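agent> call fold_tool(seq_1)
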Amino acid sequence: MNAKTRDDLIQKAAGNSETPQASWKDPKRYMWLLGPGLPVIGFTALAGYAIAPKKLRALAWTGPALVHGIIPALDRKIGEDTSNPPESAVKQLEQDKYYERIVKAFIPTQYAMTFLGAWLASRKKTPLSDKIGLMLTVGAVNGIGINTAHELGHKSNKMNKLLAMAALAPTGYTHFVVEHNFGHHKRVATPEDPATSRMGESFWKFLPRTVVGGIKSAIEIEKTRLARRGKSFWSLDNELLQGWAMTAGFFGATTLVCGPRAVPFLVGQAVYGASLLETVNYLEHYGLLRQKDENGKYERTQPEHSWNSNHIVTNLFLYQLQRHSDHHAHPTRSFQALRHFEKAPQLPAGYASMLLPAYLPNKWFEMMDKRVIEHYKGDLSKINWDPERKEELMAKYAEFAAEVAAKAAAEVAEEAEQNAAA
């Protein structure tokens, strides 16, 4: 199958047509401002706390309240949107610089908010509980800032890649630009990918595997790239060293101004922010597996290899990251043009609503394991298992899988009868 035919099929699966719609306008055009609006909300909350720290103490906890409470509640209240932009409008959407400016607008306020948070947390009179709240608020915004970096890092422009690293510098996760693009996208939904979680693997088991594996992968990728150019790992062209230098520079400058009390704050918010990224990694491909052909080569990444969600509010804040299938099929496609696929696996809730369940293994397994089995129509051989729990879980779900497989077979037989009758 050639590339054009494949893309035509993907467009058809996404529910698009080639009907000219030159007058089509993005109904969410100004709603996307919620993305860069998030650090503005964070900065405003911290400024309010700075003015009246005793009366407005609750503002210190704005970040976790938004991420784990307000956004999930709005997702449930407002619901989903499965509409796609018409294919005839995609070129226009991609060329509209307004959307790129929205993404870049996140970064200046992100830095201002982080600096303000560090200054507030380093004051002697700031209570410990407030310091923790400030740390989590800044960490939440910087964690979402990683998604800003994700959007910019997929662009070929060198300045966009530098801005992506700038958005990652406050969390110290600048290696993400290298590993995500050239590691995760190549190995996604395979056992070899440290950023793909396996069925039966808890988030707490996944976390050290993905953090250590991601750093190792980024180093190997950059070593190989530089070696091809005849340069050593310690070259000034090393993008990992450039990113780590940006983090060191920002942490150093902030500590110089705010004092040594800023150090635990900066480290704590970075850990929390990075953990949010890894939580999203955990839920994006849980248990999904690309199958191998007769030559032992993995099939091309398809929409069925990513968990998706169309909950509107989270998509607006995360630049439509929840339409993850289309992102993996077309990594350079900008967020405003990403599409929903009817056959792509859907999460039971938006990403924001799935964060807390991900921290609770029993709750997570209850929500997701049977969903994975249903996605594969009861065929347990197609699942990406945690190798240490594979036999245990296959025995546990054998009866349920048989029921799902029988139901799927009956549906196929019924469809065949209807087609024959027609």
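agent> call fold_tool(seq_2)
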Amino acid sequence: MRLPSLCRPRLLSSFLLLAAGELPASGIPGRVAVVTDTPGCVAFWDFVKREPAGARRFTAHVPPGAKNDFPLEAVNYVRDYWGEGREAVYADFPLLGRGPFGQAIRIRREADATYRPLLLVPRARLHDSPLDIKGSGKSVTVVVWAIRESGNHALAGIWHEGTDLKQAETAGIRRVERGQRQYALFAGLNKEGSACGHVSENGASSFLNRYALHKSNSADVSPAVSGDSPADLLDASWQCFAMTYDASTRELTGWLNGRAGDRWLENPKGDRLISSAYQAWLQGWLRGIPGLQEGEDRAFPSDQLYHPPEDRLVETNIISESAGERVELREFRYTRLKVTLRRGADGGWTEFGRDLVALRLNPWWFPHDRLYSPANDGSGGPFTIGRVIHSSRGVGFTGWIGGVAVFDRALQPEELARLAELRSAVAGG
């Protein structure tokens, strides 16, 4: 990747200092510069930078000339949507006094089911801003430096899951809204502890499932570390979670500590959630065959079919073969298929049937050419840190968060590796 000439000198100098283990005397400014000098950085919260007066809310490092530094509000979303529980305040997010950039906030396991605090930038303050990454051809990266104590849910992003699902927790809800998802980074979801990227084209669900299912999971998994551990253990436990969505390849990738790795899901047909993607793949394949096929559902929405590219064969292995029939395992970039062939009268082999036996979770292929683009600030979600708004009101992720950065491009592996090198902790000023 060729960097813009104006960015290159300062960026490379920061990277070289980091690689050599040398930073400016204060240490922390050099670390911050490594993040903010990375091309495409639109916002970086280090939980050190605050408003100079007034509420003293956390604000983001933003590019020169930016009109918005995205101050974070403390909100209890249960109070906002159910009318239950107390208001959230900044004191509900304990500070560590240390971290990759000198400070960190704690997301605690709240015992009160009416209390789910998070930090957010309201939609009205981010709509159509550089943080509002949406529409066709848009790529995005989210990086979060965190210590995971427990849970697998949201770390940061624009991912309002909606409060419209019919379940016990939504009985008596006062404010019902459909999903308003765009992009977000999670601490694993279906693969707890992994770095899980999530994107949505419609803000709502995927493949006729009730949930959004376009997500990736890093091969590596973060450990669970008590948030009350001694300082030396916490200092050694920082992880760099990241997700990238590259619109040019339509690949969504999860990265933990600068490494993506391959992750496959065997037997997607039998998975509790990904079976919906299996059905979307099956319907996509059947619809591509002339005529109405056995098992084909013509009512299945065409925009929810899932058919990753299968034009380039990676590997073929013969599972079984007889005089009249052969079964092959064919691997493509995003799928593995069991293909059955039968010998014809002319001695040649003809495909008789196929089945999806494995689906690649990292990277995940996204079939749409756009990220959800809300029409106005009333149909889009906020940017949240620590939790997201959702119907189940679960505890979600718990642990320490020491930095959140958003980029309006898909960072390259070497850039993510450099950001991961910032995991060591330093004391705040």
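agent> summarizing second result for user.
Confidence is low (pLDDT under 50) at residues 1-26. Residues 275-287 form the longest helix (13 residues).
agent> awaiting next instruction.
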